[in-house]
Specification:
Number of strands of chain B: 23
Strand content of chain B: 15-25%
Helix content of chain A: 10-25%
Low-confidence stretches of chain A: 1-20, 24-85, 205-214
Strand content of chain A: 15-25%
Mean pLDDT of chain B: 93
Structural class of chain A: alpha+beta
Radius of gyration of chain A: 25 Å
Distance between the termini of chain B: 46 Å
Largest interface: A-B, 50 and 67 residues
Organism (chain A): Cephalotus follicularis (Albany pitcher plant)
CATH topology of one domain in chain A: Ubiquitin-like (UB roll)
Oligomer: heterodimer
CATH superfamily of one domain in chain A: Phosphatidylinositol 3-kinase Catalytic Subunit, Chain A, domain 1
CATH architecture of one domain in chain A: Roll
Subunit structure (chain A): Homodimers and heterodimers.
Pfam family, one (chain A): AUX_IAA
Mean pLDDT of chain A: 60
Number of helices of chain A: 7
Shape of chain A: elongated
CATH architecture of one domain in chain B: Alpha-Beta Horseshoe
Distance between the termini of chain A: 47 Å
CATH class of one domain in chain B: Alpha Beta
Protein name (chain A): Auxin-responsive protein
Order of helices and strands of chain A: HHHHEEHEEEEHEH
Structural class of chain B: alpha/beta
Number of strands of chain A: 7
Largest sheet of chain B: 21 strands, mixed
Keywords (chain A): Auxin signaling pathway, Nucleus, Repressor, Transcription, Transcription regulation
Number of helices of chain B: 19
């Protein structure tokens, strides 16, 4: 766990009553007729980066922004997505289960010349290298050759070279490897191992008639 | 005075399996203590920091089977930082060094490294069973070592672990002469495996009774595995995706007809709905079904499936089954003893598909029900009272209303009376988890009636310290108490400090206790380890006693503060 240099002042020192300023956004369906208990971790603001702490620091000096107001005492660790009202530790579902039920990113993989397509779950990989290694396993006659900075896949049997490409959310066919991995996972809709000879005809950001629509 | 020779007593003690009973036996007299000590082979240690490996080995030199638990339960819900502790290596190292004849190791919520798995595999020639539940820290390389070196391995059971998958050939590492496998579960592995190696392994394991594969095992392979192992009693399916008109599908249907021994079914990590009718042949014999990791099965198909399963005693499913589906479970599964309904949306912000209606239906239809875990949208007092009347035999009652402080939607009242009815009616409850809008009153009931409760989990409940005091005073058999987000402070914490020595552990997070209170407790009770988890340096270097403590975990220990605590854990 990394430790931060700055610390946040407790509520009493800042002179600002966070109880008053706390937006009581409850979780869906929750009755508002209840007195909000102190120290209860609920609602949007309490679980997300708060700039309130930084802006009312009375001590000057260089302070690294704290992630959360200690009076709200939200523990560190993984921060929930800012768009959802979540509480750390609630609902009490095992982390393993939460990960398993995440939406999977299955995409089709087509290889020019192969009779059928395969599917891979992009969530299962952490890097391009892992993905390409898996494609290599799947279409086992290929090996991956790192040719300079390009990733080429070669069919061992007939020496045909393939270039991994993908269709992104906009419908464009892109070369695999240009953008950071996570960005690729978000935007990839399907994969195609294109024959090198065809790929040469594909210039970057080409007009639609050059993009394959298979 | 013993009238029997030691061997006779030893033989008698052999019949005493429960570790609690054996603990009692060892208290009778010195010679019983001695005989029991040398004849004990199975030891259960609920908190790995309560005792040291050296003392364990000295106490039970003949140990063959060890169960260890590490992190506190709330670590499952991301409340405990990653490197908090719970390392198994020192245990394996000590057992190896002292040449203990270890045969079985069962671990829960512990950090297991590849190094420890390698050491394990090389140090115990008779090693037979490795069961890892909710553990982390290892990769498939560690599994490869176990496969390669444990020549008499019977059981390799990996449940819900975070395992780094190196996509190696760990399955290949089982030697050709390894034919002793009885149980193999690798459902939690995320990567590809060598399917041919798996088939060969299954083919040479005539005693294989339980096989749970991961998502990477496709339907065609499953069919071939079942052909080779028609004697399977427990099956975990990986991928169940195929075209119902294909050959592979028809072959599977035929093969399934021969699998008359299957009593337990799980998995379906990936499923194409129209394939499920092949399972109908094995459904009538099933006693246990876990489809809680099968989001690909719709509620309608779940219902169709369950209607074939009249003998089910244990069901784990997702809430997409709905209240209507639960009503069908209630009318079909009369033998039901344990039900777990998990949220399809585990981030919990959406809507759960079940309400109090489903639970009431189950309670009315399933008189043998005694264990429940139920994630739901809402609950009413009336429903809980009905459930309490219908099912007085609950031993484990865990209710999770996704909106943590939700009152009874019909009356807008807290759920005190409902839970009160549950504890009053179900005199044998040993495990209880509460949620919903709850005041001090419910704890008054719990203290009064829940006399057998051993583990209690509380969140977002109670109005004052009185709640915690009711529990500490009334629940005489309490062993584990875990509290999050409740307004309980030092008064409750310090009222009966001796109580904590009768318990395994206490967890309190996001409550009102202060550093000063924890320090007082630690000072007065030297046999407790009082640990503060100080993430993100929330507590400054020279903190004030009145500063509130975000996370405290205390437990009794015979060996004092642990020496492997990370810098963010302070033992007071």
């Amino acid at each position: 766990m990394s430790t931060e240099n700055g610390t946040c002042l407790p509520e009493s020192d800042t002179g600002l009553n966070f109880e008053e300023t706390k937006l009581t956004l409850g979780l869906p369906g929750e009755s508002r007729g209840v007195v909000v208990k102190t120290g209860i971790k609920r609602g949007y603001l309490e679980t997300v980066d708060l700039n309130l702490g930084r802006s009312v620091d009375l001590d000057g000096g260089d302070r690294k922004a704290c992630d959360v107001n200690p009076e709200n005492r939200v523990s560190g660790g993984a921060k929930p997505p800012a768009t959802e009202a979540q509480v750390i530790g609630w609902p009490p579902v095992r982390g393993y289960r939460k990960n398993a039920m995440k939406s999977c990113r299955y995409v089709k993989v087509a290889v020019d010349g192969a009779p059928y397509l395969r599917k891979v779950d992009l969530e299962m990989y952490n890097s391009y290298q892992q993905l390409l290694a898996s494609l290599e396993d799947m279409f086992s006659c290929f090996t991956i050759r790192n040719y300079l900075s390009e990733r080429k896949i070669v069919d061992n049997v007939n020496g045909v070279e393939y270039v991994p490409t993908y269709e992104d959310k906009d419908g464009d066919w892109m070369l695999v490897g240009d953008v950071p991995w996570k960005m690729f996972v978000e935007s990839c809709k399907r994969l195609r191992l294109m024959k090198s000879s065809e790929a040469i005809e594909l210039a970057p950001r080409t007009p639609p008639n050059c993009s394959s629509t298979s | 005075m013993n009238y029997f020779p030691d061997e006779v007593l030893e033989h008698v003690f052999d019949f005493i399996a429960s570790h609690r009973d054996r603990n009692s036996v060892s208290l009778v007299c010195k010679s019983w203590y001695r005989i029991e000590k040398f004849s004990r082979t199975k030891v259960f240690i609920g908190n790995c920091y309560a005792i040291s490996p050296e003392r364990l080995i000295a106490r039970f030199p003949g140990i063959k089977s060890l169960t260890l638990k590490g992190k506190p339960h709330f670590a499952d819900f991301n409340l405990v930082p990653h490197d908090w502790g719970g390392f198994v290596y020192p245990w394996i190292e000590a057992l190896a060094r002292c040449r203990v004849g270890l045969e079985e190791l069962r671990l829960k919520r512990m950090v297991v490294s590849d190094e420890s798995l390698e050491l394990l595999s090389r140090s115990f020639p008779n090693f037979k069973a490795l069961v890892l539940v909710s553990c982390e820290g290892f990769t498939t390389d560690g599994l490869a070592a176990v496969a390669a070196n444990c020549r008499f391995l019977r059981e390799l059971d990996l449940q819900e672990n975070e395992i780094e998958d190196h996509r190696g050939q760990w399955l290949n590492c089982f030697s050709d002469s390894c034919t002793s496998l009885v149980s193999l579960n690798f459902a939690c592995l995320k990567g590809e495996i060598n399917l041919a190696a798996l088939e060969r392994l299954v083919a040479r394991s005539p005693n294989l009774k339980s096989l749970r594969v991961n998502r990477a095992v496709p339907l065609e392979t499953l069919q071939r595995l079942l052909m080779r192992a028609p004697q399977l009693a427990d099956l975990g399916v990986g991928s169940y995706v195929h075209d119902p008109t294909s050959d592979a599908y028809r072959k599977l249907k035929d093969t399934m007809q021969n699998c008359t021994s299957i009593r337990s079914l799980s998995g379906f990590l990936e499923v194409a709905p129209r394939c499920l009718s092949t399972i109908y042949t094995i459904c009538p014999n099933l006693t246990s079904m876990n489809l809680s990791y099968a989001p690909g099965i719709s509620g309608a198909e779940l219902i169709k499936l369950i209607q074939h399963c009249r003998k089910l005693q244990r069901i784990w499913i997702l809430d997409c089954i709905g209240d209507k589906g639960l009503a069908i479970v209630a009318s079909t599964c009369k033998e039901l003893q344990e039900l777990r309904v998990f949220p399809s949306d585990p981030y919990g912000v959406g809507n759960a598909a079940v309400t109090e209606e489903g639970l009431v239906a189950i309670s009315a239809g399933c008189p043998k029900l005694h264990s429940l875990l139920y994630f739901c949208q809402q609950m009413t007092n009336a429903a809980l009272i009905t459930v309490a009347n219908n099912c007085p035999n609950f031993t484990c009652f865990r209710l999770c209303i996704l909106d943590p402080m939700k009152p009874d939607p019909v009356t807008s009242q807290p759920l005190d009376e409902g839970y009160g009815a549950i504890v009053q009616s179900c005199k044998r409850i040993t495990r209880l988890s509460l949620s919903g809008l709850l005041t001090d009153q419910v704890f008054h009931y719990i203290g009064m009636y829940a006399k057998q409760v051993e583990m209690l989990s509380i969140a977002f409940a109670g109005d004052s310290d009185k709640s915690m005091l009711y529990v500490l005073n009334g629940c005489k058999k309490l062993r584990k108490l875990e509290i999050m987000n409740c307004p309980f402070g030092n008064v409750a914490l310090l009222e009966d400090m001796g109580k904590y020595e009768t318990m395994r552990s206490l967890w309190m997070s996001s409550c009102e206790i202060t550093l000063g209170g924890c320090k007082t407790l630690a000072k007065k009770m030297p046999r407790l380890n009082v640990e503060i988890i100080n993430e993100n340096n929330q507590i400054e270097f020279n903190p004030e006693d009145r500063q509130k403590v975000e996370k405290m975990y205390l437990y009794r220990s015979l060996v004092g503060p642990r020496n492997d605590a990370p810098e963010f854990v302070w033992t007071l």
